[in-house]
Amino acid sequence: MFCCLMMDCSVAAGDRHLSAEVKEDWQELDELKPETSRPADVATRRNQLLEMVYQIVPYLMEHNAEAEACDMLMEIERLDLLQQYVDRAAFPRVCLYLRRSTYLPFTVLC
After folding, report:
1. Inside any domain, residue 29
2. Is residue 83 part of a domain?
3. Could you say which of 27, 81, 105, 110 would form a disulfide bridge with 95 (CB–CB 3.0 to 4.6 Å)?
4. Beta-strand (E) ranges in 29-90?
């Protein structure tokens, strides 16, 4: 649960592995049993992770790691967030990656 401890996350060069930790934490939240966790706690943790996503995705997009950004957003089922970070130069690469992925709702962008 490394990500949940990083409230003030600033993404620096070399922190691409942080996206893997966000995905892992998100999956752990999905696997929690309702009787063992409070919904408010889960919602709070998801919001913390989303705050990190809002910092990580622009960094990945600026550093030509569109595939990593797409993978992370697909993993947390928030591909809709990608639209605000895709620029004219990245658009063809993102569309090509999404079309080749097994994630079906790629019509979000392309």
Report:
1. yes
2. yes
3. 110
4. none
